[in-house]
């Protein structure tokens, strides 16, 4: 009886902790959002922006709407991994663009998956005219294929300059799931940042890859994400989670039983944390 009571008290305490973090996040969200959409934050390289105690804004924000580009490898990456950031930034009036670098044709379902992608983006709040899906024979969905860093980087850079993008979100070196195509995008953007090819007012953020244990703790993982350092954190409220779930359900060709479990148990359906990418100045010379 005593053990049961102790467990119940611990659980209630944990729920109370979650509630406190939620409340704190809602209060901080306007400044967190403005900080990462702040035009001058990249001039001297990326500044580390603390998640929990952001400084008062002193830098100028964009006169027009901020433009955010999400770069993914396959249809469904946008909702499986990035739904919290896409939904929160979209609700904050940022113009969110999606560049998906393959049609996900590994099982010859590319045509169907293109349509599903548009449905998912609509659920997440990304209009169809801001969605670009690349179908290049050198960038096919295949975990055993190394995508060309040069080709991937040039496609991404063209998209950034065409749409005057201020903020790019993509995978980190772990690719969340370790998929080679995800990691290829990380390499391409790291290359662009390292050689100073990105525009002056464009920042890049990489989505943290977390351990498999943390990955499937659902919302109960939140305190760990909250207290570990990150440059940017997004947390979904229950009503916003419904949008993420709806986006996942639009990918009907992928709705196997384990995908349904993923919707319930993946922490990426509720929380995103990002690392800012240090950017070299453009006057670097290479010989
Ligand atoms: Zn993928």
Automatic annotation (TrEMBL):
<protein>
    <recommendedName>
        <fullName>N-acetylglucosaminylphosphatidylinositol deacetylase</fullName>
        <ecNumber>3.5.1.89</ecNumber>
    </recommendedName>
</protein>
<dbReference type="GO" id="GO:0016020">
    <property type="term" value="C:membrane"/>
</dbReference>
<comment type="similarity">
    <text>Belongs to the PIGL family.</text>
</comment>
<dbReference type="GO" id="GO:0000225">
    <property type="term" value="F:N-acetylglucosaminylphosphatidylinositol deacetylase activity"/>
</dbReference>
<dbReference type="Pfam" id="PF02585">
    <property type="entry name" value="PIG-L"/>
</dbReference>
<dbReference type="InterPro" id="IPR024078">
    <property type="entry name" value="LmbE-like_dom_sf"/>
</dbReference>
<dbReference type="GO" id="GO:0005783">
    <property type="term" value="C:endoplasmic reticulum"/>
</dbReference>
<dbReference type="GO" id="GO:0006506">
    <property type="term" value="P:GPI anchor biosynthetic process"/>
</dbReference>
<dbReference type="InterPro" id="IPR003737">
    <property type="entry name" value="GlcNAc_PI_deacetylase-related"/>
</dbReference>
């Amino acid at each position: 009886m005593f053990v049961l009571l102790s467990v119940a008290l611990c659980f209630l305490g944990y729920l109370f902790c979650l509630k406190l973090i939620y409340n704190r996040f809602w209060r901080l969200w306007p400044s967190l959002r403005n900080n990462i959409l702040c035009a001058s934050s990249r001039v001297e390289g990326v500044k580390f922006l603390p998640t929990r105690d952001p400084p008062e804004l002193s830098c100028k924000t964009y006169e027009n709407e901020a433009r955010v580009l999400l770069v993914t490898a396959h249809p469904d990456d946008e909702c499986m991994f990035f739904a919290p950031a896409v939904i929160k930034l979209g609700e904050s009036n940022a113009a969110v663009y999606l560049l998906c670098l393959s049609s996900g044709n590994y099982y010859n379902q590319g045509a169907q998956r293109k349509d599903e992608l548009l449905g998912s983006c609509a659920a997440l709040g990304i209009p169809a005219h801001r969605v670009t899906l690349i179908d290049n024979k050198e960038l096919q969905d295949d975990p055993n294929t190394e995508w060309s860093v040069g080709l991937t980087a040039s496609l991404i850079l063209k998209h950034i300059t065409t749409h005057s993008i201020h903020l790019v979100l993509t995978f980190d070196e772990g690719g969340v799931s370790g998929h080679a195509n995800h990691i290829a995008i990380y390499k391409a953007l790291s290359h662009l940042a390292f050689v100073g090819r990105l525009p002056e007012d464009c920042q890049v953020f990489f989505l943290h890859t977390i351990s498999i244990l943390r990955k499937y703790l659902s919302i109960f993982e939140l305190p760990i994400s909250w207290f570990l350092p990150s440059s940017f954190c997004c947390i979904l409220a229950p009503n916003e989670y419904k949008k993420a779930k709806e986006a996942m359900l639009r990918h009907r060709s992928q709705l196997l039983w384990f995908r349904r479990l993923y919707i319930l148990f993946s922490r990426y359906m509720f929380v995103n944390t990002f690392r800012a990418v240090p950017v070299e100045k453009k006057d670097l010379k290479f010989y």
